């Protein structure tokens, strides 16, 4: 086990997927990681997998008392050292035609993906200010443009990009760096299973009229997402590498895109500016 201490880092949403990969990699690299998980089972799982200084903390980011308790625990643990980084990774997804998504699911989407991120940030800011640390928000490439049938993910990530930009300006005088990581599809088997199961549930709950309007196109969208999460997406290591760059850079960039071809995304951005809105979407999305 490494004895290097590069600084204390809090990461939300580390029970599975990208969050877990980030937490385990940062412990290997010598960071003191406080890993937010959901259950006692998750606590034991990530502790057994860790090879460095990792402390699991049970934190549901929709519960104010859990956030408060975790922030107090971390504050006592790190003392005057302060918090080197907060990585806001936790999120949930509700895919489907917007017309068919229950309002309660829409509310929960924003409670976790937006409001919860702000609540966690508020709680840990005093510790970040002590260390002149940095906030890393895990966004997505759909934070730059909306995706049909994934409207809630898109709007959440677009909101996160706006929050990131606002915080960067507001916290400049405190010496806190604020940035975002924008990955495209990442291979995460747990996410593939969830997307597939949730997609089947949405289709099963559609009325015959809604199935006639959306069914075929939504099925194509879900199949593409599942394939990306299982086979064609990028490995999680690409995200962890971008986060390490952001943590270790003297002056981190505003955004780190994790994509197959950075030039392709630059061309997309230029393409979107040069053509009409409808032409862009008609040619980018075929469903």
TrEMBL record:
<dbReference type="GO" id="GO:0008202">
    <property type="term" value="P:steroid metabolic process"/>
</dbReference>
<dbReference type="Pfam" id="PF00106">
    <property type="entry name" value="adh_short"/>
</dbReference>
<dbReference type="InterPro" id="IPR036291">
    <property type="entry name" value="NAD(P)-bd_dom_sf"/>
</dbReference>
<protein>
    <submittedName>
        <fullName>SDR family NAD(P)-dependent oxidoreductase</fullName>
    </submittedName>
</protein>
<dbReference type="GO" id="GO:0016491">
    <property type="term" value="F:oxidoreductase activity"/>
</dbReference>
<dbReference type="InterPro" id="IPR002347">
    <property type="entry name" value="SDR_fam"/>
</dbReference>
């Amino acid at each position: 086990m490494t004895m290097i201490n590069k600084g204390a880092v809090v990461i939300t949403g580390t029970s599975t997927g990208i969050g877990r990969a980030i937490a385990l990699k940062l412990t290997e690299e010598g960071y003191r990681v406080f890993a937010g998980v959901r259950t006692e089972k998750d606590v034991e799982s990530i502790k057994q997998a860790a090879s460095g200084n990792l402390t699991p903390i049970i934190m549901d980011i929709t519960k104010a008392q859990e956030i408060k308790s975790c922030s107090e625990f971390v504050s006592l643990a790190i003392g005057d050292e302060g918090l080197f980084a907060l990585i806001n990774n936790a999120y949930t997804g509700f895919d489907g035609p917007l017309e068919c998504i229950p309002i309660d699911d829409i509310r929960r989407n924003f409670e976790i993906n937006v409001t919860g991120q702000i609540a966690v940030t508020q709680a840990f800011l005093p510790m970040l200010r002590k260390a002149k640390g940095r906030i890393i928000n895990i966004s997505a490439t759909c934070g730059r443009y909306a995706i049909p049938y994934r409207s809630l993910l898109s709007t959440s990530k677009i909101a996160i990009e706006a929050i990131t930009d606002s915080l960067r300006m507001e916290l400049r005088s405190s010496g806190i760096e604020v940035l975002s990581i924008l990955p495209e599809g990442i291979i995460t088997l747990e996410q593939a299973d969830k997307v597939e199961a949730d997609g089947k549930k949405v289709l099963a709950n559609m009325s015959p009229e809604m199935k006639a309007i959306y069914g075929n196109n939504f099925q194509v969208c879900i199949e593409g997402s599942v394939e990306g999460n299982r086979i064609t997406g990028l490995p999680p290591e690409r995200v962890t590498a971008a986060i390490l760059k952001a943590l270790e850079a003297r002056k981190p960039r505003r955004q780190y895109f994790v994509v197959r071809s950075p030039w392709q995304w630059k061309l997309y951005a230029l393409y979107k500016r040069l053509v009409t809105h409808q032409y862009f979407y008609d040619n980018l999305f075929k469903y």
